[in-house]
Amino acid sequence: MDRRPLVAGNWKMYKTSGEAAVLVQKLEDYASGWRDIDVVVCPPFVDLKAVSTVIELDEVRIALGAQNVYWEEEGAFTGEVAPRMLVELGVTYCIVGHSERREYFGETDAGVNKKVHALLAHDITPIMCCGESLETREAGDTDAFVREQVRKGLDGITAEQAGRIVIAYEPIWAIGTGRTPTPEMANDVCRSIRATVGAMFGQPAAIQTRILYGGSVKAENARVFFGEPDIDGALVGGASLDPEGFSRIAEAAIG
Ligand code: 13P
Question: How many angstroms separate the CA atoms of 73 and 121, rounded?
């Protein structure tokens, strides 16, 4: 497979900037063996500067990601952060549409789509999250639900842009629960996501788009997910806060 594996750590609302600097420094100790893979850490906004200061000294083995963004260029939007503010800090990836933001902060597919456009306009790679609730899974509606999220989230972008974005399939019932789909189940949804990208933007874009699995990924189970043909890496929550465990996940993605 030609797609370069990507392992992203979503630090969620953990770590002060001092703690974040220590964590990424520890991660650096493992990074020298990482070849032919993209590894990204996504700390809270207020930690980005501290983390960028640590990683800018390396040969960009670890990339910097944000967990959210607002779509406007600038303006009276109290509490929000614009793409160009992220660019200045060296951010090259940004998570959008995480299920926690959809659930607790009212994010909609339309808002996710605006964020995707804003990020692409600033050459930041969106990591667009999608995934079904347990209720949707049990009703047998997973495929239709996830396809719809992808269609709406990517609406109006170009085929060239579609090839550059990252999609993370994160079943809500697997996040932070220790429960995971089987690798085959996860791959089925990822394949369906790829088919949706293909239907919207053509086969070349579908072949390029990287699709991650997320939800209770650990060093112990990562390898089996990475063995699946349509899974190109992982979006890792809890286990990304442990440098040794996270580095083992990155190594599993290398092969
Ligand atoms: P866990 O790895 O803690 O299940 O979290 C997954 C996640 O939400 C990553 O964005």
Answer: 10
